[in-house]
Amino acid sequence: MTPLDALLARLYLLHKKDIELTLGRMERLLVALGSPQKKLPPVIHVAGTNGKGSTIAFMRAILEAAGRRVHVYTSPHLVRFHERIRLGAAGGGKLVGDAQLFDALSHCEEVNAGAPITFFEFTTAAAFKIFSEAPADYLLLEVGLGGRGDATNVISDPLATVVTSISIDHPEFLGSTIEKIAYEKAGIFKPGVPAVLGAQDERAFAVLRMEAARKGAPVTAASRDYSAREEHGRFIFEDERGLIDLPLPRLLGRHQHQNAATAIAVTRLIEPELDAKVYERGLIEVDWPARLQNLVKGRIAALGPKGAEIWIDGGHNEDGGRAIAEAMADFADKSERPLVIICGTLTTKDTGAFLRSFKGLAQQVIAVPVEAEHYGKPARDVAAAASEVGLPAVASESIEAALRFLAVQHWRQPPRILIAGSLYLAGEALLLNGTPPA
To answer: Which keywords fit this entry according to its UniProt record (predicted)?
Structure first.
């Protein structure tokens, strides 16, 4: 274990709970650090259930195509903690380095002096310290969980706020209805600060609109103020300022069209003079690992059946499953490959809800444990959940074992294999493949 790994491991012990949505501990540590949250570049604060990371990836690609230096804070990471902190630089950003990360965390540990604080709160404070010390044009800041009580919500004056698609997730913290969850997400709205809303369930939209009005935050909403559609193999974005004819986004799946549209709506708001060529380059160059990522090289491709098509995705809730299933159905229209899902989920997730949309589409589910996360659900339980929604399922001990099992089966046509159910599982797949995010 490296000194950095040992330090990160110690931080998990500072609070008896993994998650506790209050701001007091975070505010205390930030004051002790000299309030780095007040020294950040202009912040675009992004909440939502699904699509936060993809929307941020599109915004980063567009802004970097325009020559801007863009800091990015996202979570969780797939393979290495460093993925959470990306530092903007001319010509594109880079992940925080070992020495800089270790120094920031060590300083925060010294200042915190053993006081109770959650891992996410502590590491967010350290990220703010790092970002405050490096000049940039923007900070794209992803909410960890919810919004109202999230550690990132110490930002009092963001440049803009964004809420992507809302659905049921983390009900134990955010509530069991769309309305309650939307209320928590709306907690990031600030007086006079523009709020951009991605495509929403009508119940969520009603709550978001009401909370924005109460806060005095002007709203730009999908369908009402901007829209996007695919037309003759092109991506057409339209708002009150006009229409932009663009190439289809590099990130696959119809759900990514809405994420791209939201990103364009935000950047049109904060940088109204950007040329259409900047958006074109952003949509073509965007990169966001483990979101319908096709693994064509690496160890996983070698382990699976000869000629198999292998995809990974970090989707893990009902709406995420529906979006991935729609993409798999689109792929099925273009080839007759049988679909097999290697699925691992967490105990905190509704596995059946995630898998339900694959009924009639997937030939089989091979359930695996999520080894890298202590909330991983046993493979037998994942298999049972798949069977309950009508999907033939067997349990396996790992992704590698599942691929070896599939490799010795007889296939009339090489299968399409989807590894999905958890971001942590997607991270394990990238690590096994030898292609971690950079």
So the answer is: ATP-binding, Folate biosynthesis, Ligase, Magnesium, Metal-binding, Nucleotide-binding
Per-residue pLDDT tens for 141-176? 999 988 999 999 999 999 999 999 998 777 777 778
User: What pLDDT digit, counting tens, does each position of 12-34 carry?
Assistant: 888 877 777 789 999 999 999 99
Structural domain boundaries in the chain = 3-285, 293-433
Who contacts 30 (Cβ-Cβ below 8 Å, separation ≥6)? Answer: 36, 37, 125, 128, 154
CB-based contacts of 275, cutoff 8 Å, min separation 6: none
Question: Strand 219-221 relative to strand 242-247: parallel, antiparallel, unpaired?
Answer: unpaired
Whether pLDDT at 394 is above 90: yes
Give the fold, CATH level 3, of 3-285: UDP-N-acetylmuramoyl-L-alanine:D-glutamate ligase (3.40.1190)
CA 22 to chain CA centroid, nearest Å: 22
Taken as a whole, the chain contains a residue count of 438
Q: What is the pTM of this model?
A: 0.95
Task: State the Cα–Cα distance between residues 370 and 43, nearest whole angstrom.
Answer: 34
E strands, 56-175, in order: 70-73, 85-87, 94-95, 138-142, 160-163
Please state the φ and ψ torsions of residue 146, each to the nearest 5 degrees: 75, -115
Q: Which architecture characterizes domain 293-433 according to CATH?
A: Alpha-Beta Complex (3.90)
- pLDDT confidence of residue 134: 96
Name the helix (H) or strand (E) containing 161: strand 160-163
Q: Cβ(52)–Cβ(142) under 8 Å?
A: yes
Closest CA to 56 of 82, 88, 26: 88
The predicted-structure confidence for 380-390, as pLDDT tens digits, reads as follows 999 999 999 99
